[in-house]
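Protein modeling request. Please complete all fields; requests missing the sequence field cannot be processed.
Requester role: graduate student
Desired output: 3D structure, token encoding
Chains: 1
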Amino acid sequence: MQPIYARLRERARQIVADFPPPDFYREQDEAYTCSRNFLENDPMLTDLRQVVGDNLVDNFGHGLEHAIKVTEDAGALMAIEGPAAGYSPAKLKRRMRIVQCAGLLHDIKRKKKDHARLGADHAGRILKTYPLQPEEIEDICGAIRNHEAFKESIKIETPEGILVSDCLYDADKFRWGPDNFTHTLWDMVSVYNPPLDKFMARYPKGMAGLENIKSTFRSATGKKYGPQFIDLGLAIGRRLHDVILAEFSEHL
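Delivered output (252 residues):
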């Protein structure tokens, strides 16, 4: 990463720190804590997390740290949405495991073109070695296949499968908020290292992409909280834009 982008990353993280965290983490703290504890203590997920860590290559900020954040948020969404769908405690536990498997594996082929389809296929092969039913593996793979924004989704036949898919998608798109300016953007820049003027020329398109994601959230909880994630990202992005013009103008 060029020194100027290291400086910009630091400024961006300072800007993010000035904003409150998304309401989701405060208002749904119980569900989020439940999800984190489940991920840390479930033996199957512990093993799968190690497999993912050994095989997932970071690509534009979509490495293990991203996968874990998505997994935690997807589990929290399931902890909220599952009881609302009438799940018993036993069924909720099982579906938490399913959605967290999807979270851990969703970017397993991130460096490949058509990574969602290839990732779903690869996840299916990995999961055959775990104590899962065929329909559970199908739900995980369907969710991975459907997690990209602005792409046509495959049809999922069961309400249980649809909920896994929706929770994974929404958790992944939560990352388009503040996380975009603490990690993802700078991981992308470190690969391409464009001149700052070219970076700024692409800035409006990037901000428009954030704006467009607001209407795509799928679960009831995602629709409630997701737009705020994006609004925070947009506010951070606008402030960063002003900082670049004011403090880094000699590089433009």
